[in-house]
Design a protein that fits this description.
3-stranded antiparallel sheet; 129 residues; mainly beta; 42% strand; 1 helix; 4-stranded antiparallel sheet
Length: 129
């Protein structure tokens, strides 16, 4: 009879990280207590406002990559136990419609990142031949 040790919880954590990568969810490394940044999106006539709750964000590490169809947020969150221990995160947010990449406004106040993206205005050619 062969006895093997099964590491079910460690295996599940590995599978969970792999699934998160496939679906472009936040990626945390070095911790079993993962927290996803909470994202809220509001659309108005001319703009899209994204609010991300990122407590303990190391502001210098924050990176935003914007395309017409999505925005990628990544950076480091400091541990609540120690300010010298960091967790990496990455989050891809699909946008409901194209935005202008050149005109982006962002603020980070009290753990809330607010990003304002302006929608691409489609011009219709009204002259018919």
């Amino acid at each position: 009879m062969i006895i093997t040790h099964h590491r079910s919880f460690q295996d599940l954590e590995t599978v969970d990280c792999q699934v998160a990568q496939v679906f472009n969810e936040a990626e945390f490394r070095g911790s079993t207590n993962s927290q996803l940044p909470v994202i809220k999106m509001q659309t108005a006539k001319e703009e899209i406002v994204i609010k991300a709750i990122l407590p303990n964000l190391d502001e210098k590490s924050l990176e935003m990559q914007v395309t017409e169809e999505s925005i990628v947020l990544s950076g480091h969150l400091s541990s609540t136990q120690s300010n010298t221990q960091y967790k990496k995160f990455r989050r891809v947010i699909a946008l409901p419609q194209p935005v202008l990449r050149e005109d982006i406004k962002s603020t980070y106040i009290n753990g809330i990142l607010t990003i304002v993206l302006f929608k691409v205005v489609e011009s219709f050619n009204s002259s018919e031949t």
